[in-house]
Design goal:
- With about 700 residues, the protein is an all-alpha fold.
- The chain folds into three domains: about 170 residues, no CATH class; about 400 residues, no CATH class; about 60 residues, no CATH class.
- Helix content is about 60%, strand content about 5%.
- The strands form three sheets. The protein has a two-stranded antiparallel sheet. The chain has a two-stranded antiparallel ribbon with strand order 3-4.
């Protein structure tokens, strides 16, 4: 009562129990301390809701003949629903039996008396739960968090039964949003939710006094400084390491290049159109210079061609080799400064001889550079790899964190201009690693947030001036529209294709399972088995490489062919090789023999996914790929003779290039058109058009 005799409405009655949020906190702590049995009702309830809602979505939109994937999803949802109902029934039967033995009512009484807590929320003394019990509790709690998220791919499974309302010019419509969302939920969401659940269980043992204190324990502001890592380089040693990485990358991808006299590919005609648009005054990425990849790639193609004094298909092929050289240097340099010399050396050899990404451009037995010209760009996923390996190192820096983060963000922005995949994948990598570092108590939220702000500032330092240039010409909206046009269209289902390359079947279908198993294993520590906290540097690097490989493989799920699959696997050699080197020891293998056997098992599983058969010839092929770059420089191939009938001062021949024009047939898609006939036609076309701008319409042939 107040002095005026009126009861204060905000003050609860004296005999009222704890407020509802506080009672929820008390019940949550009690359920978590009860172990798997306390979490089982929650998991069963979530299973009932998820199974029922998912079946309703599928049955509500199912046609007379639903796709096989929808049928499989329906069976899985029905199994989840039945298992959840069985668990609830078992819990009810157990409660009934206990009540009958006590002779009391079946239903528990309402109020706080159901909780094993004493007055004022104090808990009686009880033995601490074992690590294995906490791990099982965390797994069940994580399952309760992941199950509702699976309704998103179920929704897309149901939605794909409706025909599209638009028609795409190439390929067709194949809605794979169910696959990409399922991949993200399972591959990225599962590790994050599992680590979060483990922290929730661990902090519940401290019986936090409020939700705020519980959240503060989950996401600590600061953590103790990590112990010194395996390697600490001085500035000169780091510079020497990076120089060595650049030299190794030069050996496999650097000049002098032996350009092949291959026919002109259709991707080269697309890229060359943008380069010629820039040469005739079009703004980058706009108008006649419109380009389906990043604007930075188009500008770099143009600059390399001009620098090589070859505004031609030859210059375009030189640009692809320059991109590969830069990407290989970034791959090796980042790996060399983040891991041990032996692991870096073995990974480098495996990457350049066995794994598919660095085989897109390679030396042939004849000494020529071979590649998928006009399309191959190893920088398309380099930003994802760079962020994943270097962001945790930036967070761990005690001094100079903000400057290092700004530099990393600026490099990321430049790579985003090269390809849209770097932007999408980079955001996913930053989000996943930031949460993993904080939830594992490897980094505090203040250090992680500071690094994220620095990366954002560095990104803006590059992106804002580029946007300002377009805005000054009134072209910013059009540039952004073209930048997102193909990524958004592919994500919706336009231009997607089915998997067709049988030689890469195992890599496409089974790699996600291997990566998920390795990533979950990298989160564990043994003796006793539990979720690891306060990660060592080796664990941080391994988890970072695995996260990068997981995010990169996402790009292979929509445009599902061999070339796209190879191009996405830039981070895969580092992820699998580091897992073979470090994971057995991180899981508790103490003897050298156990570590070697565990590493050999991981390496065998990785090699089994790659199309390397017959394995008996594998040593010879590895040796050939190692010495071919040297032989191509010592004994370069002799140039082909110029086809007869090509005029010596032909404008078309110069635009094609002095090497490419020596191919007997003009184009990769047309082996019936001689190069001489093609050159003369283009010369006549140029004589008619002159310097006027024209619009060239492509045809199916």
């Amino acid at each position: 009562m107040t002095r005026s005799g009126v009861r204060d409405r905000a003050a609860p009655p004296r005999d009222a129990g704890p407020e509802i949020p506080d009672r929820l906190r008390v019940r949550a702590i009690a359920a978590l301390e009860a172990g798997p049995r306390g979490v089982l009702p929650l998991l069963a309830g979530v299973g009932v809701v998820t199974g029922s809602a998912g079946l309703a979505l599928l049955l509500g939109r199912g046609g007379p003949a639903p796709p096989r994937g929808n049928v499989a999803a329906g069976l899985a949802l029905a199994a989840v629903l039945l298992a959840a109902l069985a668990a609830l029934a078992a819990l009810w039967v157990g409660r009934v039996r206990r009540a009958r033995r006590r002779g009391g009512p079946v239903a528990p009484p309402r109020g706080d008396s159901v909780m094993p807590f004493g007055p004022h929320g104090t808990a009686p003394a009880s033995p601490a739960s074992s690590a294995q019990r906490d791990l099982l509790t965390a797994v069940m709690l994580a399952a309760a968090g992941v199950l509702p998220a699976l309704l998103l791919p179920v929704h897309y499974l149901a939605a794909r039964t409706r025909p599209p309302g638009e028609t795409w010019l190439a390929y067709g419509f194949l809605d794979k949003r169910w696959l990409t969302s399922l991949y993200l939920v399972t591959m990225v969401g599962t590790p994050l939710v599992l680590l979060l659940a483990a922290r929730v269980v661990a902090t519940a043992h401290g019986r936090p006094e409020s939700w705020r204190s519980w959240l503060g324990a989950l996401l600590p502001r600061d953590v103790p400084a990590p112990p010194p890592g395996d390697r600490r380089y001085s500035a000169p040693a780091t510079a020497l390491t990076l120089l060595g990485a650049a030299l190794i990358a030069w050996y496999f991808f650097g000049p002098p290049w032996n350009l092949p006299p291959d026919p002109i590919g259709y991707h080269e005609t697309q890229a060359m159109g943008g380069v010629q648009g820039l040469a005739t005054g079009s703004p980058p990425y706009i108008g006649t210079a419109a380009y389906q990849y990043g604007p930075g790639t188009e500008v770099a193609d143009y600059l390399v061609a001009r620098a090589a004094h070859a505004m031609s298909v030859d210059g375009l092929r030189t640009a692809s080799l320059v991109f590969a050289w830069i990407a290989a240097t970034m791959f090796l340099g980042t790996l060399a400064v983040r891991t041990r010399p032996l692991a870096a050396a073995v990974t480098a050899v495996a990457a350049f001889t066995l794994f598919p990404a660095f085989q897109l451009l390679r030396f042939t037995a004849a000494g020529f550079d071979h590649g998928f010209w006009g399309w191959t760009n190893l920088l398309r996923y380099a930003g994802v790899y760079l962020l994943a390996l270097l962001f945790p190192a930036v967070v761990a820096r005690p001094r100079g964190r903000r400057a290092a983060a700004v530099a990393l963000g600026a490099g990321w922005a430049l790579l985003c201009l090269m390809a849209q995949e770097n932007l999408i994948g980079g955001v996913l990598v930053l989000g996943a690693l930031a949460w993993l570092l904080v939830l594992s108590r490897t980094a505090g939220r203040r250090a992680t947030g500071s690094a994220l702000l620095g990366v954002a500032a560095g990104f803006a330092a590059v992106a804002v001036p580029v946007a300002a240039v377009y805005a000054a010409h009134g072209l910013l909206g059009r540039a952004l529209e073209l930048y997102w046009l193909l990524p958004s269209s592919v994500a919706k289902g336009y231009s997607n294709i089915d998997w067709r390359i049988h030689s890469f079947w195992t890599l496409y279908h089974l790699l996600p399972f291997l990566l998920l198993a390795l990533l979950l294993a990298a989160l564990l520590a043994a003796r006793p088995l539990r979720l690891a906290t306060e990660w060592s540097e080796r664990r941080v690097v391994l988890v970072s490489a695995l996260v990068a490989a997981v995010i990169c493989h996402l790009g292979a799920l929509t445009r599902s062919d061999g070339a796209h699959l190879k191009n996405t696997e830039l981070a895969l050699p580092a992820a699998l090789c580091l897992a073979a080197f470090d994971l057995p020891a991180l899981l508790g293998a103490r003897s050298r023999r156990a570590r070697w056997l565990g590493g050999a098992a991981i390496a065998t599983a990785a090699l089994a996914l790659l199309p390397l058969a017959p394995y008996a010839s594998l040593p010879q092929r590895v040796a050939a790929k190692l010495w071919r770059p040297a032989m191509a420089r010592v004994r370069p191939p002799a140039p082909r003779a110029l086809p007869a009938g090509i005029p010596p001062h032909s404008i078309a021949a110069a635009r094609i290039g002095r090497v490419t024009v020596r191919q007997p047939w003009c184009c990769a898609k047309h082996h019936d058109i001689p190069m001489e006939r093609f050159v003369r036609f283009l010369d006549r076309l140029h004589a008619v058009i002159g310097t006027r701008r024209v619009y060239v319409d492509g045809t199916p042939s």
